[in-house]
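Lay summary. Proteins are chains of building blocks that fold into shapes, and those shapes determine what they do. In this project we predict the shape from the chain. Here is one chain we studied, written as its sequence of building blocks.
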Amino acid sequence: MDTETPDSPTLPPEGDSPTTTLEASLETNLDGLKKVPWIRKIAQTAMQHGHFKPLGQRHFAAMITGDSTLLVTFETLQAAQVNPNGGRPLGWDFALDQGWSHLGLFSDGDSWFRDPAVYSYFDALIDDRFFEQFDTVLFYGAGPGGYAACAYSVSAPGARVLAVQPQATLDPRIAEWDGRFAHMRRTDFSSRYGYAPDMVDAAEQAILVYDPAEELDAMHVALFTRANVVKLRMRFMGTALQGDLWRMNILMPSLLALAEGRLDHGAFARLYRRRREYGNYLRSLLGVLDQRQRPGLTVHLCRHAVATIGAPRFRRRLEALQKAAAEGQLSLPPTGS
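And here is the predicted shape, written in a compact code that computers can read:
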């Protein structure tokens, strides 16, 4: 593949860097680098250990060559820059820890990767039979990246997909009910790699993760209903599920299970039990129970939270409920029930 440096001022790797081992390159801490130096580091590493390809003004691809499992990820460079593991691309953790190959597609801001330069890049990968050299191919993304993971998975028939809160399309003729991304309504979602639910037909399996309480996310996921699509629910978790998966330390195990062909409702449910000690989930659930006026369940939740994470907020809420019960304002379940 082409490894020449880009002409675009937004993708400016410059100069030569000393050749380093793959492990040393992937362990490089990129935290705190501004956009241009960050892209330059990514480009240098990719050109040493795979390939780098600028794709127009807003996108680029960076390949790290590892073993016969390929992880293809879609993320904004802004999100990658704040990765808590050293400000590195998400897939580098898998290349480092598992020895996988990684192909990262990056956008400067949310673009849903709708760009003819990106279409052409995947066309070239297909023509070169690039994906055929790998035993296992995985596509991953969240939000706009989740849309792209589904849409471009068609380039590797038989691949497995994990998409977190994906949009099916932003074509107003289909998704006029989603007003969150009005600025994208003039973007073409009807041509190449366009309607994501149709594109996953070629996948061995497409697994979609969403919170069914988030109505618009649930409506997009409903459009993906196919025989090869599995829908995993993270109820009451909200609108930033990738960060929640990361902080609960279940994103990497989920992708490992996907690679082994064993990510299903049962496997995910076992991983998702970690929410029981996850503060964001417990706080969200507290808000739901308060809104529904369920003081008995709220007491159970607060007792659990105080015992597991010791959160002062839950302790104060529990004390307030106990005081109200003592004054005869409500009835609470006994301790230990």
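What the prediction tells us: Residues 279-326 form one domain.
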